[in-house]
Amino acid sequence: MKLFLILVLVLLVYYLYFKKRKKVVRAKDEKRVADLVFDEACQTYVKKEEALKIEVQGKTYYFCSKACAEKFLAKTKNLS
Ligand SMILES: [Zn+2]
Fold this sequence. Notes:
two-stranded antiparallel ribbon; rod-shaped; binds zinc ion
């Protein structure tokens, strides 16, 4: 009987430990979702993991679509 109680206690500790770990992972995901980048072509914010990343003269730019990236590149070419 004593052994059974210890087993239950161990299981409970494990359950609480894994529940805590899941919460930490979820908090990390929320932080990643909130990570936004600015699209200079259409002046909107895009999720970083969904954005198109392009490097121009050492600077990194993010766009919501290929069309936006091309629009921005055409604009920068006209300026220089
Ligand atoms: Zn865009």
